[in-house]
Amino acid sequence: MLRSLSLFVSGGTRNYASGSAKPKRFPHGGKYPRPKPRTAERPPYRAPDPLLNNPNAAVTELTSKLTFIHRPPPTAPSPLSLTTNPVSPLLRPPTTPKNEALPPAVRKAVERPRASEETMAEIKRLRGLDPERYTSGVLARKFNVTRGFVQAIAALKKSQRKKKRAAQEAIAVAAREKWSEKHSMTMAIRAKRRELW
Length: 197
Hints:
Helix content: 25-40%
Low-confidence stretches: 1-12
Keywords: Ribonucleoprotein, Ribosomal protein
GO cellular component, one term: mitochondrial large ribosomal subunit
Organism: Mycena indigotica
Region (Disordered): 1-56, 94-116
């Protein structure tokens, strides 16, 4: 049963018939309930006035509604700063480099000797003789050249390239068959996303 609260007003004072002197307040001490979470709005940000209480700012009242404020720039030139000898190191002319030893190189460049005509002819012969055995990496290590150099002077025929690409694809398919279901789904999503680039 709900207990009714009746209010009597007499002589400018309030009398409650229930016996309580004041209406019930909320736990946080307020008269009204707090707003629900995520419904209150944050007050707008008010940036402080940089000219307020600034000792370097000169304030001049021109009229009743107009005020002129002059503040020198924070990087005012110093009387000791000259054009030939500025105080700021950013305005000074670049110093002449000293004749000192440079630090050692992080990565040393590999100097390879220039391949002769006989070397290039031998690379072409071996590459055409057995491409499966004499791959570009094997020939590059044997003749001290780069793999790109071998692929440039002794490129495979179109039929051989197709055959090699098919063999590499078969190896890739065998590796993909060992993927888990989660990994397969992740790679399919990545491929689909790449199509939409």
